[in-house]
Amino acid sequence: MVFNVCLNYLQNTHDAEEVTQDVFVKIHGKLDSFKAESELKTWVYRIAVNQSLDFLKAKKRKKRFGFHLFIRTDVNEDSDAFSSFDHQGVHLENKEATEHIFKAINQLPERQKTALLLKLMEELSQNEIAEVMELSLKAVESLLSRARANLKEILKNNEG
To answer: How distant is the alpha carbon of residue 113 from its chain centre?
Structure first.
């Protein structure tokens, strides 16, 4: 579950494994502070989402300042994320279509992306998404609606 959440955000097996490990270290360190105000599963999802977002922000910051997490001259930046993409259920013949869809999802605002990934990839209910994201059910419904509309527009624009 944690690895899949990380993989859906990072779209790179190596990065997802690294962040998954960070998530479990964080869970272990904070387990005594878990107040059981929500389900343990929801709490773990929240940590996985936040760790993934933090990793992406740190990676962007490093790139902005000219530092790279991976120094690779043989692979360009766009293809690197999908060169090791091996999400369960994505077969080689679907890799190009999956890459296209994930590039579009990555263009969504952060909260829309989170809601959409939790709904489509993790198959969480809107109530569970609301708990993970600490939002009202109405806010989640709105985010999902806007995410779908924006994704449709992005995909349409990318085709033309």
So the answer is: 7
